């Protein structure tokens, strides 16, 4: 399973003029050299010799929902264009690398891209995204949850189109919470979860692997404590001010270490990803986990496959992400997919027309039900079919309203890589030393004095 929120694996159950190019991050220098175009992604081009233009939509792997939406929007276009999906590698790093190398080579076949929000600033800063038309910007952000708009924005301008949103919720076994005396109708803290898990001798699931999922956890803890990984952003990486070594940063480390030392995490906690957390939750010791909405569809799929009893899934419930401190609202993780339009596409106007179709309320509702990927439009959560398939939809919507994106910076890979190195394994972190060492290391990496 990939570690990035925008790219969890498919469910097992099928139910105006270009702006001047901004400063390109140094790691992109020379990216155009040695570009290798995989045969599986060799597009037929943006046009067909005067016939109907073909728009190539580079998508992250899913359960087939994006391909269906491409077909729907091709039909709706009435011959103006057709959309051909091209599937990118499964892991987000591979997706980024393939797209960014081709864009650095000014590849005109890249019309529409499904982008993880963490890469939007980098693509925008490098000038790889075509400007969003002003009238379309108003249309595609109306009624969209705020974090999705925020993650599509760079330097106070909308640079991508919000498509679907993702967030982690607190999954719990109703029987366990009841036995522990937890009132799940009220916000709960990490400390309360640890105590309840110890009292009932059940597992707490969280993602402790040295992967993007660890950065997701660190960011959610710091944001929930009232801080930010990046306190002051800047175009020049040497001018970025980190917020790790702060009161909120130290409090986040305290929580992480408390979970790791609780005795209620899996024996393989330092390599635990989202799938492993879900597996533990399905076991006889399942109690609590922070994870994405796919958990419910995965459980139903296991029931259909005969590997899980229906009574286990009947015991599932979801609440908003746990708080770090009792009086401070949680800031759950945020992910999903935004649509970027390639700056070198020969049909940017048609590509934006297609993007507007792709993110329509009807298509977002379809994608939620078919692939289990929550919508960025808040109204979709009231759709009767969505509510039938996902009883947890109101909690997911509430979580999205509270969610905090990971740091928005063109240098996200350096920041995340540094966090993964310094905060792993979770049982080794220390509130007095880890934030300071992480700050020093990431600052050195951003200045070009250290390598990841």
Count all strands and give the number: 13
| CATH level-1 class of the largest domain | Alpha Beta
Radius of gyration: 22 Å
Q: How many separate domains make up the residues?
A: 2
Shape: globular
**Proportion of residues in β-strands:** 5-15%
* Structural class label: alpha/beta
What is the CATH homology-level superfamily of the largest domain? Periplasmic binding protein-like II
Counted by DSSP, the helix tally is 18
Q: What is the mean predicted local confidence, pLDDT?
A: 90
- How is the CATH topology of the largest domain named? D-Maltodextrin-Binding Protein, domain 2
CATH architecture of the largest domain: 3-Layer(aba) Sandwich
Write structural notes for this entry.
With 452 residues, the protein is α/β, with parallel strands linked by helices. The chain has 2 domains: 5-166 and 335-402, 3-Layer(aba) Sandwich (D-Maltodextrin-Binding Protein, domain 2); 169-331 and 411-446, D-Maltodextrin-Binding Protein, domain 2. Helices cover 40% and strands 13% of the residues. The chain contains 18 helices and 13 strands. It has helices spanning 65-77, 92-104, 120-125, 134-141, 146-151, 174-180, 190-200, 212-224, 247-260, 274-282, 294-305, 310-314, 348-358, 361-371, 384-389, 393-402, 412-422, 434-446; strands at 54-59, 82-87, 112-115, 153-154, 157-158, 161-167, 169-173, 203-205, 230-232, 241-242, 286-291, 316-319, 334-341. The strands form 4 sheets. A 5-stranded mixed beta sheet has the order 2-1-3-13-6. A 4-stranded mixed beta sheet has the order 8-11-7-12, sandwiched between helices. Strands 4-5 form a two-stranded antiparallel sheet. A hairpin with an 8-residue loop joins β9 (230-232) and β10 (241-242). α6 crosses α7 (190-200), α8 packs across α9 and α17 (412-422) runs antiparallel to α18. The longest helix is centred in the middle third of the chain and has 14 residues, at 247-260. The protein is globular. The model is unreliable at 1-48 (pLDDT under 50).
